[in-house]
Amino acid sequence: MERCASVVMITDADSPSGKAFIREFAGSGAGLVLGSPSGGSEIEAELRIVDAAGAKALVANADLTSREEVALLLEQARHQLGPVDVLIHNNDHYIPALTEDCEERDFAAVMEANAKTAFLCAQAVGKQMAELEHGSIVFLTSVHAEKPTGSSFAYSASKGAVKMLAKEAALYLGRFGIRVNTIEMGPVEGDPDRFRSPFSTLYDNYRYKVPSGELGSYRDAAAIARFLVSEEARYLNGADIRLDGGFLLHYMDHKMKRPRSGDGT
């Protein structure tokens, strides 16, 4: 078995962020371990890019809330590609869930999908990385690890849990030369419907609450992740990169940068 120069695990390859991560790392010569609930059918275009780049990929529909399935996936990766030395956790399950009426099953589902998978993957991959005394973990979280959505306290709680997990992991794994950082993603296209709130206006005209009036994308997150796992970021550990274009700095709606009207005013 020929070992890949680096082996990158992406926990939710089927998601928009996962597809961006695949495209970012495909040309780097890395082996890719892709968690794919669809078994690869949702990422056929990305897999063609991986193949064209001469990279190798292991696609698996593994239950990452199961310690046993996570261990099995990592063992398969070790045999086919080599030990995982980059983990990108990007699970981002959302269910509308207000504090006063959230069903227990919904709270549990969001916490398991986002926080439990982060814990189990970081724990298992971290042990492998500690043996190598090398590796990097990136958690794609959300600005709602810090600021309430007004639409799902369960989502915010799960992202806050991942944020603190990253801090604890950075403290412990840093002793083995492993770096753990987070990217706190701000709004992208589609968020106003996702985070629609009965009492918060945070996402009303959210596009223009970004000072530049221009939204970011998951490609921006993928580029930041590529930097975070590189040697150029060797002194970044336990850091939170807020990738929101200044969204959380907004304070007055009437000061938003809106498109000019047709008459040039």
From TrEMBL:
Instruction: Cite the entry's keywords alphabetically.
Output: Oxidoreductase
Write down the EC number. Answer: 1.1.1.-
Query: What's one Pfam family here?
Result: adh_short_C2
- Give the Gene Ontology MF terms in alphabetical order: oxidoreductase activity
Q: Matching InterPro entries, A to Z?
A: NAD(P)-bd_dom_sf, Sc_DH/Rdtase_CS, SDR_fam
- Indicate whether Oxidoreductase appears among the record's keywords: yes
Q: Say which family it is in.
A: Belongs to the short-chain dehydrogenases/reductases (SDR) family.
Task: From the Swiss-Prot or TrEMBL record, give the protein name.
Answer: SDR family NAD(P)-dependent oxidoreductase
